[in-house]
């Protein structure tokens, strides 16, 4: 993260609260035990997006779907965007308050919000509100555009947008400057609105990085919709929701970028990286490092898929079949990496806007900041290890279920080995980086 936003990004190290060796052994053991148990006991696909735990009361869906509530959520999203831009422009509360609102409250907070409540950003997206207002003024239907978005585009525009946001956070020149962040946000918003004008409001579901990101995370939400015609709100097994993610163009790259952002953030904070990059122009070096990390993640996923296709000996194996199984892995990394930052930033936001009302209270160096609750280092380190390992175990479960559903009897295990090896490597690498900085 940037500047003092790293204050709550507390991690261990080789001799810290949780010895690195113990964490690595525990992580690898948990993954192997999970895979072995699945191999022996799980021979048929069990997850299906049509399955539900329990339908929610029928009166709830009309309330959630009511146009008044939808407009209220859209206005709330627009008001939040205006507040963020105002804080960044005026410097209210100090530069770090504005940066924290973008990189922590919004970016990190989008993860638990989407996991708990579903595709929240699709409902609150301020760009949709602006586009809808422009369409109302010009008397053009929001869904209409000048051209139809080709299906082969998939979510590739969102991949580019997500990588560019990661570049802003981790590699851009003057990345801790509110002016830099403001410029990026205005340019991003303009590009999105122009694209929506050309392709209609359907663009946002494919081209808005944050909406696509939130919707992908929302596949793991326990809140969902029934697959029948009434689209009733239901409680579901998160794995059933994940099973409904379609392997569309760009999905593998999107998941790879999601993984690469936290991986590179950890890597760039290690002593080894600082030694190698010392004396070099930081923005180009960091840009190259971030791009290399994303390409490495994508290469590992593609390589494991190619190996699985070869080992399946002609059995049907769709490209991107295993990409959804890496979503829990990415979630585990984000929560391990930034949960403590989010905890601190929420307290600061509440303090500045609802308690003290004083901009000075937003500064970490003051007495106010010292009073903010931050868990002890041992609890943060333990949470990080549990989050990373749990994410990988969930990923192994999701990958195994997808594989047994696609492969014929007698060839259900061997093609999974390449991706399992990749997950072991990601577990060990991720824990090593987290516990090294």
Model description:
The protein is mainly alpha-helical and 437 residues long. It has helices at residues 20-41, 60-64, 67-90, 95-106, 110-117, 120-124, 126-138, 156-170, 178-199, 204-207, 209-218, 238-243, 251-267, 271-277, 282-311, 327-355, 367-370, 377-406, 417-434, and strands at residues 54-55, 223-225, 233-235. The protein has a 3-stranded antiparallel beta sheet with strand order 1-3-2, with no helix packed on it.
List keywords for this structure.
2% strand; mainly alpha; disordered N terminus; 19 helices; 3-stranded antiparallel β-sheet
Short characterization:
The chain has 437 residues and is mainly alpha-helical. 64% of the residues lie in helices and 2% in strands. The protein has a 3-stranded antiparallel sheet with strand order 1-3-2, with no helix packed on it.
Task: Please write the string of helix (H) and strand (E) elements.
Answer: HEHHHHHHHHHHEEHHHHHHHH
Structural class: mainly alpha
Could you tell me how far the N terminus lies from the C terminus, measured between alpha carbons in angstroms? 13 Å
Number of domains: 1
Low-confidence stretches: 1-15, 360-366
Subunit arrangement of the protein: single chain
Q: Share of helix among residues?
A: 55-70%
Biggest sheet, spatial arrangement of strands: 1-3-2
Q: Based on DSSP secondary structure assignment, what is the total number of beta strands?
A: 3
């Amino acid at each position: 993260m940037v500047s003092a936003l790293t204050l709550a990004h507390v991690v261990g190290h080789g001799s810290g609260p949780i010895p690195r060796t113990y964490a690595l052994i525990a992580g690898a053991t948990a993954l192997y035990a999970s895979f072995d148990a699945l191999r022996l006991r799980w021979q048929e696909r069990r997850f299906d997006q049509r399955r539900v735990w329990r339908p929610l009361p029928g009166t709830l869906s009309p309330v959630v779907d009511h146009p008044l509530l939808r407009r209220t959520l859209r206005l709330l999203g627009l008001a939040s965007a205006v507040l963020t831009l105002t804080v960044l422009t005026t410097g209210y509360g100090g530069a770090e308050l504005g940066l924290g609102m973008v990189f922590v409250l919004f970016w990190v907070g989008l993860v638990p919000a989407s996991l708990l409540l579903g595709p929240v950003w699709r409902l609150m997206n301020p760009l949709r509100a602006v586009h809808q207002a422009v369409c109302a003024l010009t008397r053009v239907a929001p869904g209409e555009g000048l051209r139809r978005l080709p299906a082969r585009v998939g979510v590739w525009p969102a991949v580019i947008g997500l990588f560019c946001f990661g570049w802003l956070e981790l590699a851009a020149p003057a990345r801790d400057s509110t002016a830099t962040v403001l410029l990026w946000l205005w340019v991003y918003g303009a590009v999105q609105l122009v694209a929506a004008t050309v392709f209609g409001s359907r663009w946002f579901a494919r081209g808005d990085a944050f909406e696509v990101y939130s919707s992908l995370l929302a596949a793991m939400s326990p809140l969902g919709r029934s697959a029948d015609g009434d689209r009733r709100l239901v409680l579901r097994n998160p794995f059933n929701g994940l099973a409904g993610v379609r392997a569309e163009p760009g999905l593998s790259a999107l998941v790879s970028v999601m993984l690469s952002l936290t991986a590179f953030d950890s890597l760039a904070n290690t002593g080894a990286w600082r030694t190698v990059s010392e004396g070099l122009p930081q923005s180009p070096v960091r840009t190259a490092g971030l791009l290399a990390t994303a390409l490495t993640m994508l290469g590992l996923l593609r390589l494991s898929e190619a190996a699985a296709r070869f080992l399946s000996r002609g059995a049907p194996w769709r490209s991107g079949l295993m990409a959804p199984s890496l979503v829990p892995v990415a979630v585990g990394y984000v929560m391990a990496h930034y949960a403590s930052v989010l905890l601190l930033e929420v307290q600061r936001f509440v303090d500045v806007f609802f308690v003290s009302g004083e901009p000075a209270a937003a500064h970490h160096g003051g007495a106010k900041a010292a009073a903010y609750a931050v868990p002890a280092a041992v609890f943060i380190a333990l949470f990080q290890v549990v989050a990373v390992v749990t994410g990988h175990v969930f990923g192994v479960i999701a990958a195994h279920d997808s594989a047994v559903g696609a492969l014929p009897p007698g060839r259900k295990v061997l093609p999974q080995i390449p991706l399992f090896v990749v997950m072991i490597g990601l577990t060990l690498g991720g824990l090593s980086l987290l516990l090294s900085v």
